[in-house]
Amino acid sequence: MARIAALLAACAVGASAAGGPKTIVTILIDDLGSYDTAVNNKDIEYVTPNLRRLSHDEGLRLDRFYTFMYCSPTRRAFMAGRYPVHMSAVQAQPCDNLLPWNLTILPQKLKQAATPWAAHWVGKGHLGYPTTDHLPIRRGFDSHAGYLAGAEDYDHGFNYDAVHDCPGTPKRCVHDFWHDAAPGADLVDDIYYSTNWYTQRAQDIVVKHSTNDATKDTPLWIHLMYQGVHAPYVDAPRWEGLPAGSPFWDATFGDMLHVVDAGIGNLTATLKAQGMWDDALLIITSDNGGIGPGNNYPLRGTKATPWEGGTRVMGFLSGGYLPSTLRGRTFPAAIGVQDWYPTICGLAGVDPTDDVVFDGKARPIDGVDVWPSILAQAARPAETAAAPEVLHEYFPTTTTSIIWRNQWKLITSAANTFWYTKNATHVQDTRAAWPCRNEA
Question: pTM (2 decimals)?
Fold first, then answer.
């Protein structure tokens, strides 16, 4: 019986590789808390109705999806398929060399497919770019529009705080926006609110790709890196926000979330209008846990901490390519950002192997192709209980934390933090109530 099941799984995997998605859209929502959307918080469906629909009615929720505890290492791990701790835990400054040139990053892999993929970068970078050869346009992407540092204003490519990810005197990235291989002076005047501009850019790519005879039969990857909902916490356009008096715990933050959600709804509508939805796979996550007005309930800790609240984030798959038997279900195994590299390579029929040496050590990829495990779950009845598959025996989530076989997490040298409540207030970790506190 086990042998038959293995053969069926192998056939399913082979069929997936042979008939993979024709469109992949990967979306990172910056600094999103695990409880900030209706993916995990049904009480705020009025804030993020599209994310609720895509994750619950049309998607597969990832119950234990892990990133690094802050932005830049997560983003580099996505591109390179390595654990963030194997890439460096440093928050990249614009000129840092933290994604070495000898790595074959994901868009370069997709160019190796039998039919090379079109690849487009939209939004935040934060990878480190010591030379112009490290820009996305020189590393496999066909277009790039976005900023290079870790944060900026939501309008016109200004850096909201010239100290933030922008060292040196004089400050080098007060204006931070790039278009392909040159500064984006031709674009910044149109950026009134970046969430809307990035959405429209992605929609335009979909329409142009699907209506151009030279590209319409080419598989398409859009890497959409929303600036929202990272600081600064500023009002979205008033006509796009939540109704006055909405009960969300922070009005400005709720408006920012609502506009991100509307943008994802608009992009999915465009994919459907262009006849691309049935063969599309969406991968939607955050880059780390929430902070500031964000809410990581019921988890402990925030962005920049190794606790679950800093590293275990909202994530789900959706799109017409996702098997119907998976929609409305939850995938229970512990997986992470490094796994998208081999998974997307597998779906594109490309060998994910990338054995290179940097920092004096051999650095093969750490990621695991999770698609066979996802298909195996699709073959089981939804009501069938089974222990989560162990895809990572030892899974380092930060430099001071590691998960062993899905069940145990060791954290060292971590400061006290707090738990969240449903309304985003904090319960401090004083341990005063711990019954064994004063025991010998």
Answer: 0.92
